[in-house]
Amino acid sequence: MKENIKIDTTNKVITIKGLKKSFGELDVLKGVDMDLYQGENLVVLGRSGTGKSVLIKIIAGLLQPDEGSVNVLNHEITGINEKEMDALRLKIGFSFQNSALYDSMTVRENLEFPLRRHEKELSENEINQRVEELLEDVGLSQTINQMPSQLSGGQRKRIGIARTLILKPEIMLYDEPTAGLDPITSMDINNLINEVQQKFHSSSIIITHDLTCAKITGDRIVMLLDGQFQRQGTFDEVFTTEDERVKAFYDYNFTD
Amino acid sequence: MHTDAPKEGLEKANKYVLSRKLDQIFVNLAEVYRFVVRFFQEVFLPPYEWQEVINQCFQVGVRSLPLISLTGFIIGIVFTNQSRPSLADLGATALLPALIAVAIVRALAPLVTALIAAGRVGSNIGAELGSMKVTEQIDAMEVSAVNPFKFLVVSRVLATTFMIPTLTMYTMIVALMGGYVNIHANELTSFKSYINQVFDAITFLDIFSSVIKAFVFGFTIGIVGCYKGYNSSKGTEGVGKAANSSVVTSMFLVFIEELLILQIVNALRG
Ligand SMILES: Nc1ncnc2c1ncn2[C@@H]1O[C@H](COP(=O)(O)OP(=O)(O)OP(=O)(O)O)[C@@H](O)[C@H]1O
Ligand SMILES: [Mg+2]
């Protein structure tokens, strides 16, 4: 199914140890340990409200961890200053659960927005070229002058992904890339995630509760249960278990 | 960077120094203070988002111009008309142009402009930033290493701070025109003599203090709208609340500032 994927298990791009995060009384992450290897697609499965989004928001520096260490591309992000965090963020792409397109801007302006601010040496022509190329990659060249409100959910997702790819990130974080999409559109997104992995040699964390997405995109799968990673391995390894909580997850996905 | 921090801390401690409500008020005040300080820290630091500042100035103008034109003109007419009987009792209708000039320039124009802008622009800023917050567009800017505070807040606050004084001058002119229409119709005063009387009545301090006042109003409207939007709570309900409380809070502050500045200017007049 996937070819030419080189995963370098000696090179960890993200290392998380004993990560804890709570909001008031609510303990969301209770000691998460995780590694992400160069070039791999890591799928994080878990039910709603288990803290999957919180986990990647911590990686991207949107939330602060309470305890534990989070190392991203050899930078410890706890206590990092704003400037270093921004430098790091240029190497991280974040695809939001609801796409988070800037709705006062056209598709073109959405894509140009980070580019104009971070690669000031580019000429107008080069900017145009980068935007058009990327839109072609996600198969949405025709939407270039549309506003986000005119796009369908699947299109928005793809534009969102394109916007994060424009700075050529080393790490991609996808927050529920297929949530709320029909099976065929979901498949397009799954394929896009794999193409990104192949073309950009990026390492990705894919958060989802869609098992089809997990199966297709994931080289390795971890399951977030009760604030900790409980199982990990390939898709089949994870779901060959007697753990009722894991089985329930599988059954509901494929029997409703 | 982390707007949820103070609230979180408060809930975690779960004890209150005074009462929950009072503590919350002080926490809010501290947050507003930090927000204002952050504005002054970032406004002078590059990169500057000039394009966005200009764009926002344009938005402020477009949003409030029609309503300000109409209101300003009508206030000029109505105020003149209502002032006439009192002056007529004293046999002093000749003083009408001087009276309305002082009233419009010193008080009516800045206040009317600020109140209209609070309603039109303040609510819009609150709603816009609120919905950007709720739909994670602000987070999206942050993760793409673009400073959302600078792009969104600094540009909007600069726009209101410079546009409200500009619009105030415009309101003065429009309202004085309204006054002229009414005076010309009743007393048959010529335009030239009306203008002469107007300029005789007002001083430089009148105009200057009004413009300064308008700067303060503009800054207030921008900061309040941005603060409410930027810190709006999750959900569509949060957006509505942000818009609504932007208007209420900034109108309230505008009145307070009006009173304070009035005291200062009166002291200056000696
Ligand atoms: N900024 C925040 N302030 C307070 N609570 C929060 C915050 N962000 C997340 N939470 C809480 O943390 C918990 C985990 O949220 P999170 O968004 O990570 O869930 P999730 O696993 O991504 O779920 P979903 O699949 O629904 O997206 C939730 O109970 C949520 O209410
Ligand atoms: Mg989530």
Automatic annotation (TrEMBL), chain A:
Instruction: Kindly give the PROSITE patterns that the UniProt entry links to this protein.
Output: ABC_TRANSPORTER_1 (PS00211), ABC_TRANSPORTER_2 (PS50893)
Record bears the keyword Nuclease: no
Give UniProt keywords alphabetically.
ATP-binding, Nucleotide-binding, Transport
Tell me yes or no: is Transcription regulation among this UniProt entry's keywords: no
- What domain of life does the UniProt record list for this protein's source? Bacteria
Domain ABC transporter positions: 14-251
Please provide, alphabetically and separated by semicolons, the GO molecular function terms listed in this UniProt record: ATP binding; ATP hydrolysis activity
List, alphabetically, the PANTHER family matched: PROTEIN TRIGALACTOSYLDIACYLGLYCEROL 3, CHLOROPLASTIC
Name of protein = ATP-binding cassette domain-containing protein
Origin species = Xanthocytophaga flava
From TrEMBL, chain B:
Is Membrane tagged as a keyword?
yes
**TM region positions:** 65-82, 94-118, 157-181, 201-227, 247-268
**Sorted alphabetically, which keywords does the UniProt record give?**
Membrane, Transmembrane, Transmembrane helix
Question: Is Membrane there in the keyword field?
Answer: yes
Gene Ontology CC terms, in alphabetical order? ATP-binding cassette (ABC) transporter complex
Origin: domain of life: Bacteria
Xref: InterPro entries: Permease_MalE
One GO molecular-function entry: phospholipid transporter activity
Q: Which Pfam families would you find in this protein's record?
A: MlaE
By its UniProt entry, which PANTHER family does this protein fall under? ABC TRANSPORTER PERMEASE PROTEIN-RELATED (PTHR30188), PROTEIN TRIGALACTOSYLDIACYLGLYCEROL 1, CHLOROPLASTIC (PTHR30188:SF4)
Instruction: Give the protein's recorded name.
Output: ABC transporter permease
Q: Which organism is it from?
A: Xanthocytophaga flava
